[in-house]
């Protein structure tokens, strides 16, 4: 358990259980094995990420803009790019569990901020577009200094594969392509 556990659990108690959040996940949370390890390390073994649906965030692209000591290099966030898209999964998170997602994504430590993205959800007769929350690098902490983390890219690729993201997109991630 880390020092943020009590803070997260208090926020969880105060959250509106009847206010679910749409969450667009595009990063290492999609690596189920790594996420399960993180949950265990932080005493969140009771939390289960729902299955989610394949989705793509519109008019954004990946950018490696956060130097992470833990990952040993820069990790990815999102940047606005008209016509671009980032694949991931769209989850419906119960309101009481949103603080756990915020902790995982680095919101609690001010590494990331929440932002709204337009998301297209496939797998239906008609494509549906909705708004969802994604986590991006806190602008005050963004930097292009240093190399991209190879370990992060490996986790990103593992997560993309296990999430069933399109093969050509997974190949793009493996090449480390981003702005």
Secondary structure: helix percent: 25-40%
Sequence of secondary-structure elements: HEHEEHEEHH
Query: Radius of gyration, rounded?
Result: 16 Å
Mean pLDDT: 90
Tertiary shape: globular
- The overall strand count is 5
Give the neighbour order of strands across the main sheet: 1-3-2-4-5
What oligomeric assembly is this protein in?
Answer: single chain
Low-pLDDT sequence parts: none
- Count of discrete alpha- or pi-helical segments spanning 4 or more residues: 5
Beginning-to-end CA distance, first to last residue: 35 Å
> How would you classify the helix and strand content by structural class?
alpha+beta
Sheet having the most strands:
5 strands, antiparallel
Strand content: 25-35%
Sequence-ordered SSE layout with sheet pairings:
Blueprint: H1 5-14, E1 21-25, H2 32-41, E2 53-68, E3 73-93, H3 98-105, E4 112-121, E5 128-137, H4 150-162, H5 167-174
Antiparallel strand pairs: 1-3, 2-3, 2-4, 4-5
Helix pairs in contact: 1-3, 4-5
């Amino acid at each position: 358990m880390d020092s943020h556990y009590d803070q997260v659990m208090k926020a969880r108690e105060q959250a509106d259980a009847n206010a679910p959040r749409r969450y667009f996940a595009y990063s290492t949370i999609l690596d189920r094995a790594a996420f399960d390890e993180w949950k265990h390390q932080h005493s969140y073994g009771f939390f289960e990420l729902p299955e989610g649906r394949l989705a793509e965030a519109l008019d954004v692209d990946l950018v490696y803009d956060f130097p992470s000591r833990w990952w040993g290099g820069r990790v990815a966030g999102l940047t606005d790019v008209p016509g671009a898209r980032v694949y991931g999964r769209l989850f419906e998170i119960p309101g009481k569990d949103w603080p756990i997602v915020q902790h995982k994504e680095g919101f609690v430590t001010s590494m990331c901020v929440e932002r709204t993205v337009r998301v297209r959800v496939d797998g239906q007769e008609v494509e549906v577009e909705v708004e969802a929350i994604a986590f991006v690098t806190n602008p005050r902490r963004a930097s292009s200094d240093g190399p991209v983390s190879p370990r992060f890219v490996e986790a990103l690729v593992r997560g993309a594969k296990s999430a069933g993201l399109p093969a050509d997109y997974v190949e793009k991630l493996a090449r480390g392509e981003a702005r």
